[in-house]
Amino acid sequence: MAVGEVLPLLPGAGADRVVAWRRGAPVRADEVLGHVLAVAQALPDAPAAINLCLDRYWFAVGFLACAVRGVVNLLPSSNAPQHLASLVLQNPGVIALGDQADPLMPGCPWRDIAVAASGAGKVPPDAQPLLPVERVVARFHTSGSTGEPKVCDKRWGLLQAGHRAAAEVIRSAMGGAAPVIGTSSFRHMFGFEATVMLPLWAGGGLTSDTPFFPADVAAELAALPEPALLVSTPYHLRKMLEADIDFPRCAGLLSATAPLSAELAEAAERRFRAPLLEVYGSTELGMLATRRTSESTDWRLLPGFALSSCEEGFVATGHSLEAPQMLHDLIEPLGGGCFRLVDRSSNLINVVGKRSSLGFLNQVLQGLPGVQDGVFCVPPDVAHHDVTRLAAFVVAPGLQPADILAGLRPHVDAVFLPRPIVMLDALPRDANAKLPAAAMQALMAEHLQRKP
Prior knowledge:
Blueprint: E1 6-8, E2 18-22, E3 25-28, H1 29-42, E4 48-51, H2 56-69, E5 72-75, H3 81-90, E6 95-98, E7 110-112, H4 113-117, E8 130-132, E9 136-141, E10 151-155, H5 156-174, E11 180-182, H6 189-202, E12 206-207, H7 214-223, E13 229-232, H8 234-242, E14 252-255, H9 262-272, E15 276-282, E16 286-291, E17 298-301, E18 305-310, E19 313-318, E20 325-326, E21 329-335, E22 338-344, E23 348-351, E24 354-357, H10 358-366, E25 373-377, E26 391-395, H11 401-408, E27 421-423, H12 437-447
Parallel strand pairs: 2-12, 4-5, 4-6, 5-9, 6-7, 11-13, 13-14, 14-15, 26-27
Antiparallel strand pairs: 1-8, 2-3, 9-10, 15-16, 16-17, 17-22, 18-19, 19-20, 21-22, 23-24, 25-26
């Protein structure tokens, strides 16, 4: 992309194209553009805005309105008050946007997007703004699942380039465009790309709600006039499969944020009567590769990406990356744009000379009958490079630690059996079903730290 090049808000959209679905009603492109420009005019001059909309539609309108005005969208990984307060301190002059009348951030200038958009007229797509490709439109904050959250800026042109690569593969697998329902947070990079950018730019229409409980997901799917693409996580998929309810047929399933087992993928495809694609990527990379997990363990790079090796591991390059990006994972290149994922480098462990990975052990644990959730960890008083024992936190109502050990023994070497096993009511997962490093450290400090 050349400096000075411009791209539209809604590429290729005709005035009557359905861009979104709100409470079962379609919203056309000319209506969306009217809302966006009305909100953009109502925004004050500000360097950045924290978008706290709870409705995905108003979030998208706020995002595009900020992009039009040159206001950087700050997308926090958490809405925790302490985290939001730190963003305000780090970004003088920041404003906050929402779709509710009561400000969620007292002391920070507040704009109610729904009010600003009320009474907006329709704007034909041929009159929509064109934005410079080099404009920074979003600042994502990583989830912190591997340590301290990091900041990643995204430019308008690179976001659209990444979308085009992913949309081509996803639409091919699903048989065309479809409405998109997401259980994932749309402030996380995967949820943002899959449930906001994909339907806005590739057709099908985004949906405004973020259903969490299985019955709510079923109701959302049933409310649409055609089968939808369901964007979710392995954790949410497992909960949906455990529910004794029928789901309408989907056009397809998209999963990310944690490893997905072939067994879970096959079960989800049977229940939803649709193909499931798993996505590999990160906040820094965006979507990088996909696989049909029920058919293959191998990943295939999206068009326009390449991998190369270096002393530290592997580097990704591509038309949607501003600079080469190191992978956080160990991979095995297979040629032809394919690779096999070994595991995260930080997950590899060596216990008294025997090697395994926390990712593999977690999959075994979570697959045990009666286990609703679980995670292995290295206790805080054990050096990670000299592991002598592991521990585990498990959510399994009605089971005891001895039951967990009995279930693990046939599948893992005895040196990897956890001690202790701590039974909990729930794990502190975030909105994307991830376990942030800080939350895990707090759990270990509470339950595993040896008392003097």
